Amino acid sequence: MTAGPTLTADKIEGLVRRAQAGDSAAFEQLVGYYKHRIYNYVLRMVGDPDTAEDIAQETFIRAYSSLASFRGASSIQTWLYRIASNLAIDTMRRRKYRYNSFSLDEPLSTLDSEVSRDIEDDTPGPQRQLQTRQLQQKVTDAIVQLSPKLRTVIILYELQGMSYDEIAEIVGAPLGTIKSRLFNAREQLRELLGDQIDLEAIG
Amino acid sequence: MRCKQFRKMTGTADSVSGDLQQLSPPLREHIEMCPDCRRWLAHTQAVSKMVRDLPAGSPAAGFTAAVMAGLTANRPGLLKRLLQRIAGPLRAPAPLVPAYQLVAAGCILLVIIAGGAFYGIHLSPAATPPDTGIGLVAADGTTPGMAHTPVAIGTAHNALEPVHARPDALRVEDLVLRHHTYELTRPLGSDPGIRLVSQSAK
Asked: pTM of this prediction?
């Protein structure tokens, strides 16, 4: 989910150390490297692209301001996800967040103009494409209906491809709790999606 | 194996999103025997895949630039932003008088007040009022006995107040202020019994 070349752990560690020493160019590289993951994670958490953009930006700004306190006990990625999680959950709680679903076809408004959303899609045929998008919308809506705790775990596991250990570190909960939440999230999604479940998708 | 046990074991396992052949023999045995759990597992696998297949979005083109601008921007806190919204931009505070000047002025004032209170002032027709205060001058200028009348120097904002409750004690109405000087409107007795006190001390 990153745009651009993958950075090695050593390279990332070096960038973090330089950023801690006040090198803003190094921090800029870290932002460029992690922004897609953090943005997509927050997008699935809050369901709204504009809010996701705000929270993702704030995640990096907060990270920079407390970079001096980052001791490397966890990876910088885990640390960023933790900040993003807290901000997303806090934002939803404060606003008594109401999810406004957005269409993937809906143009994205910018300061200057409207641009189409940059969504990766290689589905063939307009009819199939439409069905796929409708289904994706239903899945998106169902995810946002989960409690923040369940949502966090299923997004990190299924969409961000994280291990149980990594999720446990981000969420700050025991491994057993993470597994239990994942189970409950899947069960609730199964109920929410009902007959929309595409059994053909698994072949 | 019961269905509940089977679902708990497989629902949290990677096998949900992977190969059924990875299931342990007891789990495989159960799913071969139980159509409900087969259906359940198929649905759970489908849900898992539907979530994984959601398209990824991209942050706006200026995302990194916005973050970097946010690092250096002098962003006001929430409270200040709210205040600014209500009252407009806050004005810069007026320059403060240096603390040492305030201390010096306080000390001078204390010395003046204390000195006046303890040592009295010479009352004579020739008495010259100090720049910062007032003096007492007898109207007829013939009251030499009043040289040591205990009065304190005050400012023009001060008032006179009788010290003793004597019938002949000088009262405020016995004085008139002219050119920063209180002048007596009648001759003083042997003890005018007056002093100057600040209004705040009343």
From this structure: 0.60
Total domains present in chain A? 1
pLDDT digits (tens, 9 = 90+) for A16-37: 999 999 899 999 999 999 999 9
- Which residue of chain A has the CA closest to B65? A28
Contacts with B59 from chain A: Cβ below 8 Å: 35-36, 39, 53, 56
Q: Which of B50, B65, B86 is the last residue of a domain?
A: B50
User: In Å, what is the CA distance from B123 to each residue of A189, B112, B175, B185?
Assistant: 100, 17, 14, 14
Q: Which residues in chain A have their CB less than 8 angstroms from residue B55's CB?
A: 104, 119-121, 136
In chain B, what residues touch A135 (CB-CB under 8 Å)? 50
ipTM: 0.79
What residues of B are in contact with residue A32 (Cβ under 8 Å)? 64
Tens digits of per-residue pLDDT, B118-140? 655 444 444 444 433 344 444 34
Q: How many domains does chain B fold into?
A: 2
A74 vs chain B: nearest CA distance in angstroms? 23
Domain annotation covers residue A198:
no
Evaluate whether residue A37 is within a structural domain.
Answer: yes
Enumerate residue ranges in chain A where pLDDT < 70. Answer: 1-4, 95-124, 198-203
Full domain range(s) for residue B174: 120-201
Give mean pLDDT, residues B172-181: 58
Q: Is residue B80 part of a domain?
A: no
Beta carbon pairs, A and B, within 8 Å: 116
Task: Taking residues B97-123, report their average pLDDT.
Answer: 67
* Residue-range definition of the domain harbouring residue A8: 1-100
The Cα–Cα gap between B16 and A144 comes to 22
A62 has a chain B CB within 8 A of its CB: no
Is-contact A72 A10, C-beta < 8 A? no
CATH code, domain carrying A82? 1.10.1740.10
How many other C-beta atoms can be found within 10 angstroms of the C-beta atom of residue B79? 8
Q: Confirm whether A76 is domain-assigned.
A: yes
Please check whether residue B61 lies inside any domain of the structure.
no
Contact B63 A53 (CB under 8 A): yes
Q: Answer whether residue A13 is part of any domain.
A: yes
Residue B57 lies in a domain: no
Asked if the structure places residue B130 within a domain, the reply is yes
> Chain A within 8 Å of B201 (Cβ-Cβ)?
no
Contact A53/B59, CB-based, under 8 Å?
A: yes
